[in-house]
Amino acid sequence: MSRYEKLFSNLAARNEGAFVPFIMLSDPDPDTALDIVRAAVAGGADALELGVPFSDPVADGPTIQASHIRALEGGATVDSAIAQIRQIRAEFPDLPIGMLIYGNVPFTRGLETFYSEFQEAGADSILLPDVPVREGAPFVAAADKAGIDPIFIAPAQASEQTLQGVAQYSRGYIYAISRDGVTGTEKESETRGLVDVVNNVKRFGGAPILLGFGISTPQHVADAISAGAAGAITGSALTKIVDAHLDENNKPTDGLASAVTDFVSKMKAATKRAVG
């Protein structure tokens, strides 16, 4: 079984959903990013979604865009991201590690090299948010060859053809977005439509569904699980905590790790209440 399969099996046995925080690698620097990961795991994160900084993150709202910029201004590179993944994998051998990386990176490095180097570093899955499933065949082939789970986004208002493709080609999990637009807490997930979103994706089978976009409170997590999702992904709300604990030189201030752990703990607790 893959790490994702083991995770979802274990959570089902405990009557829980998954909480997956998004963390930008190298934000604001590699050492601090690793401390944030450790704090999130201490808070009960079931898996990780890690970002690789990119100069034109079109799927992200202003909060996560700022984290891309901070990391790049601090000298972040793809190679430094890979080094951080190796460290995280060494410290947490059983934790599923998903990557969110923009499509320019695999184009630049070459598909086979790209997927192989991330797999060797310890990543389990890769989501390319600017590569739709209709253009995904070469990426899926390279991912499968390297032993990486390809992840595709199921948009809230997707066509049946798109959803069928997402269900067919996603491994590990399906990233279903709870509302249209970019990432961010500026627009919350639309609770009333979550059941429809989840059921719309489930019609085509496939991997477990994680809901993202606008998930910023424990109630949002509980609503996602109640709607039938296997879990929820949060990015901007956690990134705002990081931003609030950086000084004018983007150096971490006291309380960052404890704030991250406290936030993740509360979000994780909501997965238990929702199905208990």
Automatic annotation (TrEMBL):
Top enzyme class, one word, equals lyase
* Source organism superkingdom: Bacteria
Pathway entry: Amino-acid biosynthesis; L-tryptophan biosynthesis; L-tryptophan from chorismate: step 5/5
Q: Which residues form the active site?
A: 49 (proton acceptor), 60 (proton acceptor)
Secretion signal span: none
Q: Which catalysed reactions does the entry list for this protein? A: (1S,2R)-1-C-(indol-3-yl)glycerol 3-phosphate + L-serine = D-glyceraldehyde 3-phosphate + L-tryptophan + H2O
Q: Which InterPro entries match?
A: Aldolase_TIM, RibuloseP-bd_barrel, Trp_synthase_alpha_AS, Trp_synthase_suA
PROSITE patterns from the UniProt entry: TRP_SYNTHASE_ALPHA
Q: Which UniProt keywords apply?
A: Amino-acid biosynthesis, Aromatic amino acid biosynthesis, Lyase, Tryptophan biosynthesis
Oligomeric state and interaction partners are given as: Tetramer of two alpha and two beta chains.
Role noted for this protein: The alpha subunit is responsible for the aldol cleavage of indoleglycerol phosphate to indole and glyceraldehyde 3-phosphate.
NCBIfam families with a match to the protein in the record:
trpA (TIGR00262)
Q: What is this protein called?
A: Tryptophan synthase alpha chain
Name the gene: trpA
